[in-house]
Structures are given as structure tokens and as C-alpha cells.
């Protein structure tokens, strides 16, 4: 998901097959659009994958459905692993749409940039991030887009909720887990460098809570080194 907002749009112009009356487009990424509104009298979001015109129609349909199913499975699997995610309300396969809970709160990115947390709250949050990523990885689930924009603090108790499993997949390889961690580190470095080395606390918590931390963190060191070399070379 992206952070860009957009005005409300006529439903049939954007998403044939689903009723978007009363919904507002809030973000659009490379793979999907996200609306927010009310579904069955509760705040909800609808995430719909859209077709890619450059792909053959039958291939596009097959890929879209495959990725939709994988995202739904990943959300459900994460919850079974003990990782809070939005509650799923309904899946409309023909329209490639997922109806889910609208988590009331702010993103971790917003909380950190707005300096909304005291020192204890910050420490608790960073440890929660490390723990949740460890639970995902030990359960064989790679998020694929770990950023502080894809983590929410649910009001009023600031429970950490992971969102946007659109790039997730199942894998137990240490290399893939390491890349997941590296993406998260880059997110902290690019968006929150002014707050110091926050990611160190995340890694410490990951190490404490993961049963398979050793091969993953060894690979992470390698991935980090490759990333730094690419940065220096350009």
C-alpha cells in the first residue's frame, strides 16, 4: 500500500463487479487500489487488484487470482501464528477484492515521525516488531514488504498490527528471511534515521523470539554487506 490519498471516485469507473458506494479511494500501488468506507455497518477497507493491460488476458486473470489467494492465505496464516492482522470480512474472487477490517489508529511510520511515543513506548514497539517478524519467519511466512507504513498501532492500546501481505509467500530459507529483515532495516534507515539506531532493538528482539535466528542473522549480515556494496558502486 502507498500513503497517497485521493478523492472519492465513481464506483463503476474503477471497480466493476463490486459496490463502492460510499467508499473513498485512499491509496493506489503497482498492484492494487484501496478504498475505505463501511461494510455491514462497520468501518472497512476494500483492496482490489487490478488487471495489467500489457499481459495476456488469461495469464493476467490467472496471476491475479493466484496472488489474491496467496494474500488471503497469508493473512489467515499470520493470525494463526499469533501475529495481529486486519480481520477478513469477505473475498470477492471475480472482482479480485478483499473486504477487511479498517484498523483504527496510525501507522508506525506516522507515530515515529510524529514522535508520539515516549522512551518506554518506543522500546516496547521495537520489541513487538522483532517478535512479530520472528513469529512470521518461524512459521515459514515471508511478508515481502516490511516497512513502517505497513505496520499499524491500533487505538486505543497501541497493539501492533501488520498489514499488506500482497507480496507475501511461503518459504523457510534463511536467505529470504534475511532479505525481509533487510527491507525493514532500509525502511528504518530511510525514514527514521534521525531517531538513532532503532533497528538494533528490532534485531535484538528477533533474536530472542526466533527459534531459527542464527542462520537467518548470519544470512542477514551477508545480505546487508551486498546491499552496501551496491550502494557504494552505484
UniProtKB/TrEMBL annotation:
Class of enzymatic activity (EC top level): transferase
Q: What is its EC number?
A: 2.7.11.1
Q: Which family does it belong to?
A: Belongs to the protein kinase superfamily. BUD32 family.
From the Swiss-Prot or TrEMBL record, give the protein name. Answer: non-specific serine/threonine protein kinase
Localization: Nucleus
Q: Spell out the GO cellular component terms annotated for this protein, sorted alphabetically and separated by semicolons.
A: cytosol; EKC/KEOPS complex; nucleus
Is-annotated flag, keyword Hydrolase? Answer: yes
Q: Which reaction does it catalyse?
A: L-seryl-[protein] + ATP = O-phospho-L-seryl-[protein] + ADP + H(+); L-threonyl-[protein] + ATP = O-phospho-L-threonyl-[protein] + ADP + H(+)
Xref: PANTHER family: EKC_KEOPS COMPLEX SUBUNIT TP53RK, NON-SPECIFIC SERINE/THREONINE PROTEIN KINASE
Q: Which stretches make up the Protein kinase domain?
A: 20-234
Record keywords: ATP-binding, Hydrolase, Kinase, Nucleotide-binding, Nucleus, Phosphoprotein, Serine/threonine-protein kinase, Transferase, tRNA processing
Biological processes, Gene Ontology terms: tRNA processing; tRNA threonylcarbamoyladenosine metabolic process
